[in-house]
Amino acid sequence: MYAVIKTGGKQYRIAAGQKIKVEQISADIGQAITLDQVLSVGEGETLKIGTPLVDGATVTATVLAQGRHDKVHIFKMRRRKHYQKRQGHRQNYTELRIDAISA
């Protein structure tokens, strides 16, 4: 069984037992959380699509870690204009283990 969920402005296709890194969620490590924005649920050939959410569908996950991604380097330059700008960014994430999908 798989599902498509929405969290942090992004959509993820998940299955039970899978580990994913999502935008930061304020939860403690080891805490069980429920994701209720389920866009679709599928199993084999059957697919249930919500309008926009599937009624009564939830995903249960456990928080494994809180961390920061690798640094993304931003470099801007205008040739012959003596303009150079360096910038960096590290995005926070929450690592989740998907425990169960209930439709």
List keywords for this structure.
mainly beta, bL21-like_sf, ribosomal protein, Large ribosomal subunit protein bL21
Approximately how much beta-strand content do the residues carry?
A: over 45%
Query: What is the helix/strand order?
Result: EEEEEEEEEE
Helix content: under 10%
Structural class: mainly beta
User: Which of globular, elongated, flat, extended, rod-shaped describes the shape?
Assistant: elongated
Number of domains: 1
The helix count comes to 0
Average pLDDT metric:
96
Give a short account of the largest sheet. 4 strands, antiparallel
Order of strands in the sheet with the most strands? 2-1-5-6
Low-confidence blocks of residues = none
Cα-atom radius of gyration: 18 Å
Distance between the termini: 10 Å
Number of strands: 10
Structure characterization notes:
- This protein is mostly beta strands and 103 residues long.
- The chain has one domain (2-102).
- Helix content is 0%, strand content 65%.
- A four-stranded antiparallel sheet has the order 2-1-5-6, with no helix packed on it.
- Belongs to the bacterial ribosomal protein bL21 family.
- Part of the 50S ribosomal subunit. Contacts protein L20.
Quick synopsis:
The protein has 103 residues and is an all-beta fold. The protein contains no helices and ten strands.
Task: Provide the fold topology.
Layout: E1 2-7, E2 10-15, E3 19-23, E4 32-35, E5 38-43, E6 46-49, E7 58-68, E8 72-78, E9 83-89, E10 92-102
